[in-house]
Amino acid sequence: KGKENRIYLIDVTNRDGVQTSRIGIAKLEKTIINVKLNEMGIFQSEFGFPVTNHELNYLNANLELAKMGALKPLRLAGWLRAIEEDVQATFKNVPDIEHINISISTSNQMITGKFQGAKTKEDVINSMVKALRLAKELGAKTVGVNAEDASRTDIDYLTEFALAAKENGADRVRYCDTLGYDDPMTIYERIRILAERVGIGIEMHCHNDLGLAVATSIAGAKA
Q1: Full-model pTM
Q2: Could you say which of 20, 25, 32, 146 would form a disulfide bridge with 174 (CB–CB 3.0 to 4.6 Å)?
Q3: 146 bridge partner residues
Q4: What is the pLDDT of residue 20?
């Protein structure tokens, strides 16, 4: 039915894949992965961390390759925390970056355990909104907003979070199944509710702890 119903593939090998135990990928290998992803027709590569010093030469070089036409039309997107400090550092370190995903935890378990009482649910949304607005001000063409541990997040709060992202200029919201908590039935129901309530492009980031990442991704896409 047109562009709004298309499914796009976003690859995070060069960002999340390298966080896997016993996996080490050299910067040249990461560059080759991006070349191959582009040849495969992948929409976007989350190519690294623009606030991590040892990544900066690689990130800037790959953006230069994109300018030269060697990495097009693949989008090269950076991952950073949904805090203003990371956004400032990103556009200082990698000035030509156009696409980013900002990420923050949304489940009660993560807010309580990870932030140790330093953030409330309201603080999480406020931090995301401030980072999102700043990213747009500094020249980001697209900003995806990630809800970490979305699969364990109360659906009403997840809706509130996603609506705040949409209202402040987010291009997509990422539903992260950070602990591999969902199954095809639960993710179908939750993504369907979120899509109906928010009306924004939804990314899915499914982990494979129970061997269900492909099944949950497909079920979520159908929703």
Answers
A1: 0.95
A2: 146
A3: 103, 174
A4: 83
Q: Do 187 and 210 contact (CB within 8 A), yes or no?
A: no
| DSSP label at residue 138 | T
- Dig out the tokens for 38 from the structure: 């582009």
Residues 194/157, Cβ–Cβ less than 8 Å: no
Token pair in block for residue 113: 């355990």
C-alpha torsion sign, points 64, 65, 68, 72: negative
Q: Tokens for 182, please give them.
A: 């969902």
85-131: per-residue pLDDT in tens? 999 999 999 999 999 999 999 999 999 999 998 999 999 999 999 99
Report DSSP letters for 150-162, one per residue: GGGS-HHHHHHHH
Element (H, E) at 10: strand 10-11
Contact (CB, 8 A) for 106 and 150: yes
